[in-house]
Amino acid sequence: MTIAIVPRGNVTLGTSTATQPTRDQGELRMGSGEDDCRIRFRRLGPYLIAVDNGQCGGHNATFSCAYRQTN
Hints:
Elements (H helix, E strand, L loop, with lengths): L1 E4 L6 E4 L1 E2 L6 E6 L6 E8 L2 E6 L12 E4 L3
Antiparallel strand pairs: 1-2, 3-4, 4-5, 5-6, 6-7
């Protein structure tokens, strides 16, 4: 899986592995160590709520946000 982080017009790419989602929640991991990037997500109606552990990407990079699919 390739994920693009797009804060304020900048683009950073990375790869990750994911656990099988259960019901409406799951987790993405980048690396296998305790201090590596982890993103927990949960579907809430039309939104995907994501919270990372602060170890994802470089300076000011985060996945923590509410996302909504657009067509």
